[in-house]
Amino acid sequence: MRLENEVFVVTGAKGGMGKETVKRFLEEGAFVAAIDLNVDGLEESDRLLPIAADLTDEDEVEKVIRMAYEKFGRIDGLLNIAGIAQSATPIEEVSLADWEKIMRVNATAPFLTSRAAVPYMKKQGSGVIVNIASISMVRPRPGLNAYVASKGAVVSLSQALAIELAEYGIRVNVVNPGPADTNMLGQFASEGADVDSIKETIFRKSVPMGRLIIPSDIANSLVYLCSKEAAIVTGSVFNIDGGRGI
Ligand SMILES: NC(=O)c1ccc[n+]([C@@H]2O[C@H](COP(=O)([O-])OP(=O)(O)OC[C@H]3O[C@@H](n4cnc5c(N)ncnc54)[C@H](O)[C@@H]3O)[C@@H](O)[C@H]2O)c1
After folding, report:
1. Mean pLDDT, to the nearest integer, of 8-25?
2. Is 224 annotated as catalytic?
3. Residue 184 C-alpha to ligand 1 middle, in angstroms?
4. What broad class of enzyme is this (predicted)?
5. Is residue 21 one of the residues assigned to a domain?
């Protein structure tokens, strides 16, 4: 097992990528605090602590990280997977409220969770943070203005933290998924569009390797980045995208 008895906080734990990641990390011997807006169906055990929380709320974030520490006694890793999509919208029709909501969930929440978890990692002298951004920050699609900007912020934050935290033995990396077969994918379509046909004609066809990314592709990359095999990897951006970013 590659993550035996290590403790991870996983956000977006009920989503497509998050659920698979929680499962994989448990299989690799980890303890997991699994956070999402709603954690119905995730059962608490000696290895799994499901916590319902809104990660845009500063106090809730402090509380969930503390709960994870109190249950498991350390925090080895933080995986920021939670996120929301943007329905493709011309810039002149994007409301300030929509812009701020997308920035708050996709960029501010990883700032809040990192700020809350880093003190525990500093005390241990080790830790790993992996933030899920998106290949769209390298190759944007029209109309995803706020989403792409939020993911660009995540990459810059991650690299800023990688340099700041290296001396404490804390690694910070990014995974940029390509178009992935989860509930979120259809939410990028513009209003009224035929989601199934767009999945095929726009998203799958945009991947040089010829298939959509699946949650286990992402979970595999996270296991590697959190394992000892990646002990010297920090500040890197992994494109798990079938070549979409080329
Ligand atoms: N699906 C794709 O094509 C794709 C491509 C590139 C990047 N991504 C990114 O991958 C990550 C995972 O996406 P997914 O495809 O699994 O999507 P998903 O919609 O299946 O999962 C996202 C999860 O985040 C949770 N979440 C949203 N707001 C939250 C909040 N305020 N507090 C707590 N939890 C919250 C949701 O409840 C949901 O369970 C996201 O950051 C997304 O932006 C997805």
Report:
1. 98
2. no
3. 7
4. oxidoreductase
5. yes
Q: pLDDT at residue 192 above 90?
A: no
Which residues have CB under 8 Å from 197's CB, separation 6+? none
Domain count, the chain: 1
Ligand 1 centroid to residue 167 C-alpha, Å: 31
* pLDDT of res. 191: 86
Instruction: Give yes or no for a contact between 235 and 137, defined as CB atoms under 8 angstroms apart.
Output: no
Residue 241 within any structural domain of the chain:
no
Classify residue 84: in a domain, yes or no: yes
Whose C-alpha lies nearest to ligand 1, atom 40?
83
Instruction: Let me know if residue 212 belongs to a domain.
Output: yes
Per residue in 196-216, pLDDT tens? 899 999 999 999 999 999 999
DSSP code at position 37:
S
Question: Of 162, 150, 27, which is closest to residue 82 (Cα–Cα)?
Answer: 150
For the CA of 56, the nearest atom of ligand 1: 31
Range(s) of the domain holding residue 160? 7-236
